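thought: fold this chain, then report.
action: predict
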Amino acid sequence: MTLDKPSFHSSASDTHTAKPKEQKNWVPIVLIGIAIAYLALVQYIPAINVFVQAFSKGTGPFLSNLTRPAFLHAAWLTLLLAVISLPLNTVFGLCAAWAIARHKFPGRAIVLSIIDLPFSISPVVAGLMIVLLYGRNGWFGPWLQAHDIKIVFAFPGMVLATAFVSMPFVAREVIPVLEEFGKDQEEAARTLGAKDWQIFWRVTLPSIRWGLLYGLILTNARAMGEFGAVSVVSGNIADQTQSLPLFVEDAYKQYETEAAFSAAVLLALLAVVTLVLKEILERKTSIKDVE
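observation:
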């Protein structure tokens, strides 16, 4: 009788291959744990602390803080900034996306880089750029002052800053959708006698609606939550040029912590609504891609 040597070698090889599998099973667990710990320190714990501080004295003081005149004015001003900058960036984003996705022209890469400029420039620097252009000693300052037009430290400057920082989202979301959609259906509609505006409303717009809505949601969220650029050009004057993020900072500096955290809760809820809408749109677009 002889020993079955191959079985011995096979069992030894199985033990060698089993160890790497056991080690690999720990890798995703460790990575997930690191990610959760990082998110907890950076996002979850600070967000929970905002809600705890806002409701530390009950819902009564929380609601009373939301009815203060300074808070109401800041909320109204923030809403106006979003209402004005959203359609401006929508029109610009659609025009830019159409020109970039449908035409090949010299300087196309430069135009894309200019659209992405708000992503790479600090909002504070963007606000400083507006001051250097439209301020009293800026390039257009003497002309504006001669015609009694005030841009910096006034509402128009806040609109310019908000529109600048929220400019890229619509264009950046619509461009890839237009490129993927192609020109075939538009050319077919044109051969059938459709005019340009009919092609846009009946062919192009339905095909880009999810990308457009996604860009609108991101634009609105950035417009309502912008702090750096608006703080530079506004002057942060209470009841005049103070948006909701600026109200949070000013109230905290004045040791009105409950009012600051109450306003921060409202901004956090707006962010949650944005995330929910973003998730709904992502699921709808994924369902559409599957179909």
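thought: worth noting. The mean pLDDT is 85.
final: tokens above.
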